[in-house]
Design brief:
This protein is mainly beta. The protein has one helix and 19 strands. The chain is globular, with a radius of gyration of 20 Å. The relative contact order is 0.16.
Length: 333
Amino acid sequence: MNNRRCGWATGLGACYLLFVALNCEAQNLVPNGSFEETDSCWQINTWYYPETGPLGWFSTAGSGDYYLSCLTYGAFNGVPLSAWAFQYPQEGSSYVGVITYSVNAQSREFFAIELAAPLQVGSTYYASFYASASWNGFEQYPQCYLASSHVGMRFTVEAQQWDFGDPLPPFPNSAQVDYPAILADTVNWVLVSASFVADSAYRYVLIGNHFDNAHTDTLHLGSSIQYARAHTLIDNVCVSLDPLGCPLVNGIAVGAENNLVFFPNPVSDVLRIQGVAPGQRVSVQDVCGRLIWWETGTGREMSWDVQGSAPGMYLLRVERAGGFRSFKFVVKE
């Protein structure tokens, strides 16, 4: 491993700290958390330094991907269509993507950035980001056709710049912010959030899957002749001392709200639904609110045969005590 330090990021962090102090609305300790600030509009696949790509962010493993709306439609790392996915930004015009599972050598990709200020030991922090599973890129034989669990944020005191040929860091099998379920939604951006008490003066946050293959669950979104990999898109990363400073699931500081997983999305034959508790009612509605199908959960996998349903957007509604949640999915021909 080389010992290149990220001095540029330290200066950037100082500027953001001053900005936070002057602007009471700026609560996010993650500089450039939505990846909008960039050095240029590159069509490229490489590893990043703080001064290249999304400014302040750098690679601590592998060559993560930086997706830009300024590129032509269908560019390798373009928006919305790229080599790995079809997705619009959760907000703004850019986002990043990382390999979150690989059957080959357990490789991973991580983006990292220095926080605007070190975390205060003993203080409670609120953190979140949005994630979406990659799928439906332009490649004839997709390299990334799985979804994986354990997409999350890990805070560290030190963060090592990665260069080609460097070994991958060891898997700690832990993260302060973790989505333990398989993140398989390829249409919507899923909000992942949590609160935690800082036990060290952490200076960096790393985004990706920090668990090894033995601790990671996967799901096939499709098939390919390539070896199996999962790739996850990330946008709007936030860390704050203020519980109102970051978007949080249901407005409270929790991790993944539940283990609900539905796939594939888009779907052309059978929609499979996992993680529904016994007694919970599950239904499918069209965009006009018409009830198409419903069942009551038994704790086992549920399924809905989409054949005969018109192509288009639908809502999967899960009812529980105190309310319900709705999730978008697409039926294709």
